[in-house]
Amino acid sequence: MSVTRYNLFGNMRGRLTRNKIKYALLLPAVLYAAAWVIYPMIDVFTLSVQSDGAFVGLENYRQILTSDQFHDILTNTFVFTVPVLTLEVVFGIALAVAFNAKFRFKRFWQTIVLIPLVLTPFAVGMMFRWFFSSSLGIVNYLLSSAGLSTYNWLGDPTYATIAIIVAEVWQWTPFMFLMAYTAIQSIPQNIVEASRIDGASSLQRFRYIVLPYILPVLMITILIRLILILKSSDKILAMTDGGPAGSTTMLPMYIYEQTFVYGSTSRSAATSVLFLLLILSFGYLFMYLLSYTRHEV
Amino acid sequence: MPVDSNKTQTRGSDKTSRRTFLATTAGAGALTAGCLGLGGNGGGSDEINVLMYAAAQATATEEAVIPEFEEETGITVNMDTAPFGDLLSQSLTTLQGDEAVYDVIDADMSLLPQFANEGYFEPLDDYVSDSDVLSPENFIPKVWEDAAIYGPPGNYYDLSGETRINQIPYQTNVLTLYYRTDLYDEAGLEPPETMSEYESAAEQLTDENDGIHGMGMMAREHASVFTEWKSEYQANRNANNEAAGRFFEDEVVDPQSPPLGFSSSWQPVFDNEISRNSLQNYVDRINASYTPDGVTGWDWTDMTQNFIQGNLATAHAFSTTARTANDESRSQVAGDVGYAPYPGVEVDGEVARAPHYGSWCLAIPANSDKKDAAWDFIEFQHREEIALERARVGAQPSREDVYETLSQSEEVFPGSQQFFEAMLEGFRVGVGRPKIVGYLEWREMMAEELNAAAIGNQNPSTTLEQAQDRTTEILSRQMSGHGIYE
Question: pTM score, two decimals?
Answer without folding.
Answer: 0.84
